[in-house]
Amino acid sequence: MRHILILLYVMCASTCAWSQCEESLKAAEKTFGTNFIAEPYFIQGMMGQGDSLSFESLWLANNTYRIATSAVDKQRINISVFDQNNNILFKGSEFNYPSDWDFFVEKSMEVRCVIRCPMPEPVCVTVLTGFKK
Amino acid sequence: MQYSLRPYELKSLVPSCLMLMTLALLLAGCSEPQPSQPAVTQPDTTGISGSGTILLAGEMVVIPPPALISHMIAKESIPFESQSLCDATHPEQWTGEIKKALCLGVLGADLSYLINHGQGATTPQYLAAIRRLTDDLGISHEVDPQLLNQIEAGLENPESMLGLHGIFFRNLEAYLKKNNRLDISTCILLGGWVESMHHLANPADSIAGHPLDKLLADQTYSANGIRSLAQSIQDDSFEDIQTALVDLCVVLEELEKKYEFKEPVHDRRQGITYLRCQSEVIYPDDQLPEIHNLIAQTRQLIITP
Quick check: is B281 in a domain? Predict the structure, then answer.
């Protein structure tokens, strides 16, 4: 009996998380806008204080890239971008925590994007990247 | 007056508490999250590390999407080449989930190549093949049928087509992640990458100093992620392709890279940062034919039934 109840609890919690994440993807798509083409591969996860979403990307020369998050209203999501040697290229906290930002790339380079969410309660965060049409 | 519970009383309370918790959750359902709602803390995607860092399929993958590669080929004014495409007339020839997923990636990359080169007349054939493969893989129901109709109807507008193409593959990716079909997701990605490499290599086969060589050499940065992804698939039907992919990635990874950091320039008003770092991939001319051959071999293994 106890196992069934635990299973039910886990199933319900998982469904809620998924529901929240589906909404989160839609929000990120809205933030992303229509002037850019989003990459099919998106980054998503439940994030609380102290968590970070991190991914690396190859940005090709002479393109403008956009990073867009599912942050809405008062959610302060901090986007940071580093180069291959860990030099900071962009820190969202210095620009009033934008939910999206563009990057023009002169020469092809590897970047590492780190997304932090200083919200007290975990929320599902989706991050989309893409390039300008 | 103090109340205390004996161990057996405490034990009998556990199921009741769990029942109450479950009922409360069920009643709350999955309605709009309230500020006071208990937090759901488990991760919902794959590849979460102990530090909470979430990676794509457990790997830090560094690959540009096929849509961008074909977009850049078109920007270089490289004319359309029909031999850059895979034959999409008989999608039924590909059997097994791994092969179907790889070829779905290949056709997806071809579709973006066609769109970027304004080849609207050929796209319905590729869309039909893609539809067939997604049906076979049991994932077509996850794509809004309206979306496919929109793609078919939007043939005259390449930019909106590319956007729809991205949404289509993102829908598939979302479904595959949700249902933990990571091998399929990975194979779509790998197939798309190999076909993009073919798009870059094929026109340059016979021309020294071709403008696409540089773009091809830049894929050295993707090679490590691709190799890790390829090695994550344990399936007998993938063995030969895996070996070929790893060989290709090893050669790409060996290319010499130079990098120099330069302070970026921020435009707060426009919301854009200009990245001025200087980088270069150095490739001896005699290494490119080897890379071209490895790409051709890998692609052939993928598309051969």
Answer: no
With respect to residue B275, please indicate whether it lies within any of the assigned structural domains: no
Mutate to test the interface with A, among B213, B273, B278 (most CBs of A within 10 A): B273
The answer to whether residues A56 and B62 touch, using CB atoms and an 8 Å cutoff, is yes
Cross-chain CB nearest to A83 (options B53, B272, B277): B277
Separation CA B186–CA B228 (nearest Å): 11
Per-residue pLDDT at B250 exceeds 60: yes
CA-based nearest residue to B302, from B81, B105, B82: B105
ipTM of model: 0.86
Residue range A44-60, pLDDT digits in tens: 888 888 888 888 888 98
Q: Which residue has the higher pLDDT, B130 or B172?
A: B130
Inspect the interface and report whether the beta carbons of A102 and B15 lie closer than 8 Å.
no
What is the number of structural domains in chain B? 1
C-alpha B71/C-alpha B184 separation (Å) is: 25
B228 phi/psi in degrees, rounded to 5? -65, -40
**Range of the structural domain that residue B147 is part of:** 66-256+289-303
Strand B278-282 to B256-260 pairing: antiparallel
**Which DSSP state fits A61?**
T
Residues of chain A neighbouring B172 (CB-CB closer than 8 A): 40
What chain A holds in terms of domains, given with CATH numbers, is 2-132 (2.60.120.380)
pLDDT digits (tens, 9 = 90+) for B30-82: 333 333 333 333 333 333 332 233 344 444 555 788 888 888 888 888 888 88
> Is B18 a domain residue?
no
Between residues B242 and B34, the one the model is more confident about:
B242
Q: Tell whether A99 is within 8 A of chain B (Cβ).
A: no
How far is Cα A63 from Cα A66, in angstroms, rounded to an integer? 10
